[in-house]
C-alpha cells in the first residue's frame, strides 16, 4: 500500500506539532539504554560464523534470533531457503494501530567457517571489528534493539511490524527473494538494514540501488596443431579478443549503465590452436530498459566476426533488479533526514552501485510499499578482514529506526 504524497506531507506536518516533540528526549534516553545491549547482541552474533550455505552456523544464529524475537513478543515463522539452505525468519508483532511496517536484513555473511575464531568481535578506537559486523549483523542488531527501545517506551501504535531475517543475501537471495516480494506487498513501508559507508564523513540512507546482470561470451573454434597445421584451426581466443574489444562500449554513461568484462578463459596447450574461449562480465544498471538494449546491441555487434568459422554466443542473465528512483523512497528519506536533525545530525540520501534485497521489496505497481535502504550501522571495508562499524553510530541509528517506526505508525490512514 503506497502513501499518497499528499497524505504523507500532511502527516509529516502533524507529526512535528503533535505530542512527538515532548517525547524526543524519552526516545533518546530509551535508545541510549540500548547501546550496550546492542553491542552485546552484536558480539554474540558476530562470534558465530554464518557464511551463506554454512548450515550449522546459520541454524545457530537462527536460534539466537528466534529467541530474541520471541522475547520481544513476536510470533515467529520459518521458511526454508532453497539452493543454499538456512531458514528465512519472519517475526510479527501486533500493535493497536493500522500501519504495517516491515524491517528486513540478511544474517548470512561472505566469510568462511573459522573466520569468527580468527578475528572475534572486538572494539578498538571507536570501531567494532569482526566478520559481518556491519554487513549485516549490525543491521540485525539495530532492528532488535530498536524494537527493544519501543517496548521500553510501551509503544505499539503500529498495526503490525514484520521482521524478516534471510540467510542467503550474499549469494543473491535465490531462496528468499520471492518471500520478500510477497510479504512486502502488504506493507505501508519497508526499511532495509544494510550498512552505510563512513568514508564521506556524512551518514546516509539509500534511495536507489543498481540492478545486476551477468554477461557471458562464448566462442567455439576448431583445434589444430599450432606447428603442423595452424591454418586448419579456428582460433577461439583471437575471436574472443576481437569480440571483447568490440563489446567494450555497451555501457551508457548517461544512464550510468556499466558492463565490465572481468573473467576470461581459453586454450589448453601452447602448441594447440584453441578451440574454446569464454569471458564473463558484470553489468550494473538503474534503468530497467537497459537489459533489452544491451542484449540487442551485443547480439548485433557479435555478428561481426574476425576469425571465419568460429561460433560466437552472447548471453545476459538477470540478477537482482534495481530499486529505481521513486517518490516514495524519496519521501521516506526526507522523513529520516528530519529525524536525524532532531539529533543535530545531517543525513544524505544516496544512490549506490551495489544491488540489495531492497529491490525485491519494491513493487513497480501503485500498491507497493515505500522502501528505504541502508538503515544499518555506519562503517566500511565490508567483505574484507578489516570490516568495521563506528560505535558512535549505534545511538543515532537506533534513534533513527525507533523514530521512523513511530512516525510511520502515526501516518494518516492510507487511501
Ligand atoms: Zn549485506
TrEMBL record:
<dbReference type="InterPro" id="IPR050072">
    <property type="entry name" value="Peptidase_M20A"/>
</dbReference>
<dbReference type="Pfam" id="PF07687">
    <property type="entry name" value="M20_dimer"/>
</dbReference>
<dbReference type="InterPro" id="IPR002933">
    <property type="entry name" value="Peptidase_M20"/>
</dbReference>
<feature type="signal peptide">
    <location>
        <begin position="1"/>
        <end position="21"/>
    </location>
</feature>
<keyword id="KW-0170">Cobalt</keyword>
<dbReference type="GO" id="GO:0046872">
    <property type="term" value="F:metal ion binding"/>
</dbReference>
<dbReference type="Pfam" id="PF01546">
    <property type="entry name" value="Peptidase_M20"/>
</dbReference>
<feature type="active site">
    <location>
        <position position="108"/>
    </location>
</feature>
<dbReference type="GO" id="GO:0016787">
    <property type="term" value="F:hydrolase activity"/>
</dbReference>
<dbReference type="InterPro" id="IPR017150">
    <property type="entry name" value="Pept_M20_glutamate_carboxypep"/>
</dbReference>
<keyword id="KW-0732">Signal</keyword>
<keyword id="KW-0479">Metal-binding</keyword>
<feature type="active site" description="Proton acceptor">
    <location>
        <position position="169"/>
    </location>
</feature>
<keyword id="KW-0378">Hydrolase</keyword>
<protein>
    <submittedName>
        <fullName>M20/M25/M40 family metallo-hydrolase</fullName>
    </submittedName>
</protein>
<dbReference type="InterPro" id="IPR011650">
    <property type="entry name" value="Peptidase_M20_dimer"/>
</dbReference>
<dbReference type="InterPro" id="IPR036264">
    <property type="entry name" value="Bact_exopeptidase_dim_dom"/>
</dbReference>
<feature type="domain" description="Peptidase M20 dimerisation">
    <location>
        <begin position="209"/>
        <end position="306"/>
    </location>
</feature>
Amino acid at each position: 500500500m503506497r502513501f499518497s504524497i499528499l497524505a504523507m506531507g500532511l502527516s509529516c506536518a502533524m507529526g512535528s506539532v503533535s505530542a512527538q516533540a515532548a517525547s524526543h528526549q524519552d526516545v533518546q534516553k530509551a535508545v541510549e539504554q540500548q547501546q550496550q545491549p546492542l553491542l552485546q547482541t552484536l558480539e554474540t552474533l558476530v562470534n558465530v560464523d554464518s557464511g551463506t550455505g554454512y548450515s550449522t552456523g546459520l541454524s545457530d544464529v537462527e536460534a539466537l534470533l528466534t529467541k530474541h524475537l520471541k522475547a520481544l513478543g513476536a510470533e515467529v515463522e520459518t521458511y526454508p531457503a532453497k539452493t543454499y539452505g538456512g531458514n528465512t525468519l519472519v517475526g510479527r508483532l501486533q500493535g493497536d494501530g493500522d500501519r504495517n511496517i516491515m524491517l528486513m536484513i540478511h544474517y548470512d555473511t561472505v566469510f568462511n567457517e573459522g573466520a569468527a575464531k580468527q578475528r572475534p568481535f572486538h572494539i578498538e578506537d571507536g570501531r567494532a571489528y569482526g566478520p559481518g559486523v556491519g554487513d549485516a549483523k549490525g543491521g540485525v542488531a539495530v532492528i532488535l534493539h530498536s524494537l527493544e527501545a519501543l517496548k521500553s517506551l510501551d509503544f505499539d501504535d503500529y498495526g503490525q511490524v514484520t521482521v524478516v531475517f534471510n540467510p542467503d543475501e550474499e549469494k543473491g537471495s535465490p531462496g528468499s527473494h520471492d518471500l520478500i516480494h510477497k510479504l512486502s506487498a502488504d506493507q505501508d513501508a519497508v526499511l532495509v538494514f544494510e550498512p552505510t559507508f563512513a568514508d564521506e564523513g556524512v551518514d546516509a540512507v539509500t534511495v536507489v540501488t543498481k540492478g545486476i546482470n551477468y554477461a557471458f561470451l562464448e566462442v567455439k573454434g576448431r583445434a589444430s596443431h599450432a606447428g603442423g597445421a595452424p591454418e586448419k584451426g579456428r582460433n577461439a581466443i583471437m575471436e574472443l579478443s576481437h569480440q571483447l574489444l568490440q563489446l567494450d562500449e555497451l555501457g551508457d554513461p548517461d544512464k550510468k549503465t556499466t558492463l565490465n568484462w572481468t573473467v576470461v578463459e581459453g586454450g589448453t596447450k601452447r602448441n594447440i590452436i584453441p578451440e574454446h574461449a569464454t569471458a564473463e562480465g558484470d553489468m550494473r544498471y538503474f534503468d530497467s530498459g537497459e537489459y533489452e538494449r544491451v542484449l540487442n546491441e551485443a547480439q548485433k555487434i557479435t555478428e561481426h566476426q574476425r576469425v571465419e568459422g568460429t561460433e560466437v554466443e552472447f548471453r545476459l542473465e538477470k540478477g537482482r533488479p534495481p530499486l529505481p528512483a521513486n517518490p516514495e523512497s524519496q519521501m521516506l528519506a526526507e522523513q529520516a533526514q528530519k529525524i536525524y536533525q532532531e539529533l543535530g545530525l545531517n543525513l544524505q540520501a544516496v544512490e549506490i552501485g551495489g544491488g540489495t534485497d531492497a529491490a525485491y521489496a519494491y513493487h513497480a505497481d501503485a500498491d507497493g510499499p515505500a522502501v528505504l535502504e541502508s538503515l544499518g550501522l555506519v562503517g566500511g571495508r565490508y567483505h574484507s578482514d578489516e570490516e568495521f562499524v563506528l560505535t558512535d553510530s549505534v545511538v543515532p541509528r537506533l534513534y533513527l529506526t525507533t523514530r521512523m517506526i513511530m512516525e510511520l505508525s502515526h501516518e494518516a490512514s492510507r487511501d
